[in-house]
Design goal:
The chain has a two-stranded parallel sheet with strand order 1-2. It is built from 5 helices and 2 strands; from the N terminus they run ααβαβαα. The chain is mostly helical and 110 residues long.
Length: 110
């Protein structure tokens, strides 16, 4: 059975409510402000956006992309098809010894 939380309801009403839309636009900008130092430090080719944020990407995406581009970040932005399962799969990777071996050389950058 599917469960729906308050944030999902909030996101589903975003198109219909201007106040919610403004909050999400601000969130997109603030998310960019938070991520820009990491993007600059790691210089990834692509940043993947997943989780429930991807549901409201049509509202906040342009503002997020504009904010990171204004800071000189040139990475591509992609959306994950995993949605809410992205965090579960990501957590599962933390138990994978080969994963830790593969990122060991860059852990000091984090």
């Amino acid at each position: 059975p599917e469960t729906i939380n308050d944030f999902q309801i909030f996101c589903k009403n975003a198109e219909a409510t201007e106040d919610i839309r403004k909050i999400l636009v601000d969130f997109g900008r603030e998310l960019a402000v938070f991520l820009v130092p990491y993007i600059k430090r790691f210089n990834p080719e692509m940043l993947i956006i997943g989780g429930i944020i991807s549901h409201v990407w049509p509202i906040l995406g342009d503002f997020f992309i504009s904010a990171i581009k204004n800071e000189g970040c040139k990475c591509k932005i992609g959306l994950s098809d995993l949605n809410q399962n992205a965090s579960i799969y990501g957590s599962a990777w933390l138990q994978n010894e080969d994963f830790w071996k593969s990122i060991y050389p860059i852990l000091h950058l984090m």
